[in-house]
Amino acid sequence: MGRETSLKVLFQQWLLAHKFRKDPQFTYEDKNFLNRHLSDWERVLFDQMDYIDQRHAFGVARTVLNDPRIQNQAEKEILIKAALLHDIGKIRGDFTINQRVLVKISQLFPSWHKRLFKAGKRSESGNLARAVYVQAIHPQRGAYMLLISGVDEAVVELVRNHHNSISRTRLERCLKTADAVN
Ligand SMILES: [Fe+2]
Ligand SMILES: [Fe+2]
What is the pLDDT of residues 68-97, one digit of tens each? Predict the structure, then answer.
């Protein structure tokens, strides 16, 4: 993805974040889908995310549903759950809408990004450095939250690896593709 395209995508994401700022706007059918695929506790973890992240995760789950690389129902169930929960390491309040955009922009400037990440390790939420840190560690944080919740190990590993530069398994590739288009 080129830099221009990235900025265009960032602007679209910023607009969407505003649209869903106060309400994820799930329909009755959407809520049924969530309840069918998440246990009560997993739903609590899902609900801890910002509304824009809930919309994103829901979109990722709808996309994986139709991936032709899925071979059976068990794989589909694992992927849907992983899609719904893959970003739970980002908790409501970790980012303001503008910080979401700035975190992505900071990734274009590696030395600035590295400085922010280091500072974010020790800071409270609410500032850009913390947002950069959370963005970087959210796969591990989310995987840990699922691990201590006793969620299926296959789901935990998909969440842990969803930002790895190289996907090791077919299901990781399915999740990564769906994540990239939502
Ligand atoms: Fe993520
Ligand atoms: Fe994501």
Answer: 999 999 999 999 999 999 999 999 999 999
